[in-house]
Amino acid sequence: xxxxxxxxxxxLFVIQSCSVESEVIFHKDKASSTMINIDMKDAMTILKAxxxxxxxxxxxxxxxxxxxxxxxxxxxxxxxxxxxxxxxPDSIKILKKIFVKSNFDNTEMSGFSLKxxxxxxxxxxxxxxxxxxxxxxxDQLAMNSWDGKTLTIDTENLSLNGLKxxxxxxELTSLQAKTSLEYxxxxxxxIGTTLKFDKKIKSISxxxxxxxxxxxxxxxxxxxxxxxxxxxxxxxxxxxxxxxIIITTE
Length: 250
Description:
Blueprint: H1 2-12, E1 19-26, E2 32-39, H2 41-50, H3 52-55, H4 62-65, E3 73-74, H5 75-81, H6 89-95, E4 98-105, E5 108-119, H7 121-131, H8 139-142, E6 145-146, E7 150-154, H9 161-169, H10 174-187, E8 190-197, E9 201-205, E10 211-215, E11 218-222, H11 225-229, E12 244-249
Parallel strand pairs: 1-8
Antiparallel strand pairs: 1-2, 2-5, 3-4, 4-5, 6-7, 7-12, 8-11, 9-12, 10-11
Organism: Chryseobacterium ginsengisoli
Protein name: Lipoprotein
């Protein structure tokens, strides 16, 4: 399971000539839902080449991506069909709320979609517990404080540390992890997240260069990749960089 999720999320960061878009919906019952659609036609070829040496000795996990269902299927249903024996009630509960499907261009797999449906704060903590040290990149936004009315964004979490944590914690060789991260730096094109709210936005306090209000129900985060990948001493200072952005809804 950890290998499957690991490669699903690493692919988010190694897509060539493509942008990665995610959407987090904050519901009035304090839950949140996340949706990600990925075009990875070039990435599959690139990843297979990059991991060829290590996959000769053990499975890389890419094989599992090729078996993803063509229609929305819960992670639990998918793993059960692959005869995984999952008995822990907490794991079953979480896996039933994560859905995946593959996307095709004619007969060729072109990407996949993933969604985490109406996750509570406890669900996110349970997911981290199930995956142990394998942090998911989306945790950084979804784990911000949301009480059903007010979202508090800790802007220090607007980073790509999730990818770095995955590469350092997963059982990859040091060379493989280093190569993957350096390659990701070269081919990032665009990464952005849209935050949507069930209720109308009443006010936004605090300012950050990467965060803008789109309309009465949504906020956009566009990551400055040159800033994130540059050395701290060489970074151009942000004009607005408040430590917290507080979004209050009606």
